[in-house]
Design brief:
Blueprint: H1 10-16, E1 23-28, E2 45-48, E3 53-54, E4 61-66, E5 85-90, E6 97-101, E7 111-120, H2 126-131, E8 135-140, E9 143-147, H3 160-166, E10 168-173, E11 181-187, E12 191-197, E13 207-214, E14 222-233, H4 237-256
Antiparallel strand pairs: 1-14, 2-3, 2-6, 4-5, 5-14, 6-13, 7-10, 7-14, 8-9, 8-13, 9-11, 11-12
Helix pairs in contact: 1-4
């Protein structure tokens, strides 16, 4: 029987590697069964105002009203107090704010982030909603960055009781392109300020903290729920090579049969 040599060109191998499907690598539902639960109960923290003062319960709390959605559990975020109840709210505060957590560092060499989503249910009208919009915030290499995109709900949510039915999911399609990001100064107890657009792409490396930033706005209530990061696993070189070799050999076997 004639033997046919197999040439394993790198391009051929790459074309045979099946890309992974995006999956949830982090989810926080902010579950709470007692109204005005401290934010730290969910593993998150808050900074308020130009001096980045540590938030107190009167500024940030977890509501025990119905959240959105009502049937999801946490992923890599500890145990949730409730799947159906709870969301973060910030009332009658015109200061800029940062809500963040460092409980799950994301290694971007192993995870290619696709989207970051969360639910927004701010009160107010069109202009007020825009003023109180949120930006995705990330810390990489000790420096903070905020998305240029402002994420807002299009219809105001009048009160906590209406959040579960009317909060809207917003999505940031992740990219490291410079135009998609702005610098964010975060020095707890000293300064919190949104900076200009980046002059270079978002740096690579582990994301050591993440959350949302909202600039100085109106006195309407700001509310968020179910913060989620979706990503595709990046296979290690050895795993990718094994997958490619297996796929190539299987293809040749099928052709021979």
């Amino acid at each position: 029987m004639k033997k046919t040599p197999i040439f394993l060109a790198s391009a051929s191998l790459a074309s045979l590697v099946v890309p992974s499907t995006a999956a949830v690598i982090y989810r926080e539902t902010f579950g709470a069964t007692t109204d005005q639960t401290v934010l730290t109960a969910a593993g998150w923290n808050g900074l308020v105002g130009a001096t980045a003062a540590a938030a107190v319960t009167s500024q940030f709390s977890l509501s025990s009203a119905a959240g959105r959605p009502a049937d999801l559990d946490n992923v890599n975020a500890g145990t949730s107090a409730s799947q159906s109840q709870g969301f973060v709210f910030n009332s009658n505060n015109t200061s800029n704010i940062l809500l963040y957590t460092a409980e799950y560092p994301v290694d971007t060499s192993l995870n290619q982030i696709t989207t970051i989503t969360f639910y927004v249910g701010n009160s107010g009208n069109g202009a007020q909603l825009a003023a109180n919009g949120f930006r995705v915030a990330l810390e990489v290499g000790g420096n903070w960055y905020a998305s240029d995109q402002l994420l807002v709900n299009s219809t105001g949510v009048a009160n906590a009781a209406a959040f579960g039915a009317n909060a809207q999911q917003v999505t940031f399609n992740f990219t490291s392109t410079a135009a998609a990001w702005r610098s964010l100064t975060v020095n707890p107890g000293t300064s919190l300020a949104l900076g200009p657009a980046l002059g270079a792409d978002l740096p690579s490396g582990t994301i050591t903290a993440f959350g949302v930033y909202s600039d100085t706005g109106s006195s309407q209530t700001r509310r968020i729920d179910t913060f989620e990061i979706n990503a595709e696993a990046i296979p290690e070189p050895s795993a990718a090579l094994s997958t490619a070799l297996g796929a190539l050999l299987l293809t040749r076997t099928r052709r021979r049969s």
